[in-house]
Amino acid sequence: MSGVVRNRAGAGAQPPRPPNAWILYRSDKLQQLPPPPLGHSKPTQAEVSKIISAHWRAETEEVRAEYEQRAEVAKAEHARLYPNYRFAPMKRAG
After folding, report:
1. How far is CA 45 from the centre of its chain?
2. Domain residues of the chain, as ranges?
3. Which domain of life is it from (predicted)?
4. pLDDT for 9-53, tens place per residue?
5. CA pair distance 11, 74, nearest whole angstrom
6. 58-85: b or e for each residue (b if 16 or more CB lie within 10 Å)?
7. Regarding predicted confidence, which is higher, 87 or 47?
8. What is the DSSP letter of 42?
9. Could you report the per-residue pLDDT of 59-86, keeping only the tens digit for each?
10. In whole angstroms, how far apart are CA 10 and each of 16, 19, 80?
11. 44: closest CA among 19, 21, 36, 20?
12. Sign, CA torsion 93/46/13/77
């Protein structure tokens, strides 16, 4: 789990959310995707997510369980690092 804080508002910035099984799987699979063919543009993040999502749906229960376990470990580590963390979604303007 990275300790990167996305909100760069300074010392009071909210810590990152703990990664769930899908986020961990996507991170692993993103590294395994082949580069685009010469002359083609890089796929958008939405396109990458669609590709990896199809892989996720096709995975066995054993693979999914492995990522669920990894997510639980990451969640426990996150709780240790940020004991007072509470998820507070930002309200959308509009």
Report:
1. 12
2. 21-29+44-81
3. Eukaryota
4. 556 678 899 999 999 999 999 999 998 889 999 999 999 999 999
5. 23
6. eeeeeeeeebeebbeebeeebeeeeeee
7. 47
8. P
9. 999 999 999 999 999 999 999 999 999 8
10. 14, 22, 22
11. 36
12. positive
Q: What's the one-letter identity of residue 34?
A: P
Residues across the chain: 94
User: What token pair was written down for 66?
Assistant: 């492995």
Report pTM. Answer: 0.77
Residue with tokens 């930002």: 90
DSSP 3-33: ---S--S-TTPPPPPPP-HHHHHHHHHHHHS
- Which residue in the block uniquely carries the two structure tokens 């009071």? 12
